[in-house]
Amino acid sequence: MGFSGYARLWSDRQVRRVFVAAFLARIPMMALPLVLTLVVVEGMGRSYAEAGLVAAAETIGSAVGSPWRGRLLDSVGLRRALVPSLVAVVVVYPLMAVATFWWLVPLAFLAGIFLVPIYALVRLSLAVLVPEEERRTAFALDAVVAEASFIIGPAAGGALVVLVSPEVAITAVGLCIAAAASVFWYTDPPIRSEASKDREPSSTREPWLTADVLFLFLVCVGAMAALMSTDLGIIAALRELDSVGLVGLVYLGWGASSLVGGLLYGVWHTSIRPSYLLLALGLLTIPVGVAHEPWALALATIPAGFLCAPTMTACTEWLVKLVSEERRGEASGWQGTSFTAGGAVTAPLIGLAIDHGGAAVGFAAGGAAATLIAVGSLTAQRLHRPAECDVCGAKRPLRARKRHTQRQRRAEGQVCHHAG
User: Fold this and answer.
1) In this predicted model, what pLDDT tens digit does every residue of 364-377 receive, in sequence order?
2) Does domain 1-192 have CATH number 1.20.1260.10?
3) CB of 285 within 8 A of CB of 226?
4) Is-contact 30 149, C-beta < 8 A?
5) Are 266 and 315 in contact (CB under 8 A)?
6) Per-domain residue ranges for the chain?
7) What is the CATH superfamily name and number for domain 207-384?
8) Which among 8, 23, 126, 394 is most buried, taking Cβ atoms within 10 Å?
9) What is the pTM of this model?
10) Does the pLDDT of residue 10 top 90, yes or no?
11) Which helix (H) or strand (E) holds 386?
């Protein structure tokens, strides 16, 4: 391993501009959920349940719009794909600042629909700008940049609400998102290689949603189950220990271990299958809840945190391997939806587990879900992995190969013919 790869990436002007623009764009986007919550609770004097409804509307909008925005990147290019987001941002966010509660819900949904496709945009650009042997390092560095944005964004948004007002904060978030999108529009980083642009368009588009890609999306859901169980479990555990004031310290250790894990994975000498990383992440998450002291909880989250960024990086890395360049935007959009849906579906289930069994049950539920998904994915991939036929040498899935070999043994001497 060597960290010189990060220096090489940073020395490339185009790559550096992508990272800087992505960092600036993610800060207001990470602040958006918290600011929306404070707009409802502080600005309107309503309940947290109603704030959750607004946050859910924005999340659903993002999950629905992500594949569409990714498909736009594939079909019309970066600048034209950003136009709907730029128009929506300058219209929707000022309206959200002055809207009543029941108008805020559909406006939050529209904000999610037209959210700038930073996730797909950055991945597509890095896949073009960075040589294949350095992509793992680039994706790992992007995961670290995203972690840094997550640390800064909510804190900055919350401070703006407290120091000025919720209405000003939501307007500022919109303006910052528009400014960051304008930077991407102006710099116009490449999202398609020259070879891909020169390739003759096919009359029929090859399907990209293969079994391997579907398993990868399931791994994304499993990763969010583990992350949400830790996110909610930390707060629940500290409340049980009457030490909620230490939440920042525990989160700092968890986030720092993820940053270190991402940096180390980025310079690792080989790629690791996301299912294996998810399996380890799930198994390390299950026992976190047994900690009965705040310092023990902080230490217990570090091993699982160490695998957070590597798991997310590996998911991106393998998607680039599995999907052709012409369809990566749409595939990245669906991957973003998988992450979003995974968090949206598992969070209330883990919350229910915590309500009925405490923080330890919440950690165990999320970790077990991640582990089961990883085991199921690995088993299914093993059954569908192409293997050489014992008779004719053709590549067939393992189950098909076994059936074929049995048929051939019953009819010894016949010519081997594969169907399909």
Assistant:
1) 999 999 999 999 99
2) no
3) yes
4) yes
5) no
6) 1-192, 207-384
7) MFS general substrate transporter like domains (1.20.1250.20)
8) 126
9) 0.75
10) no
11) strand 386-388
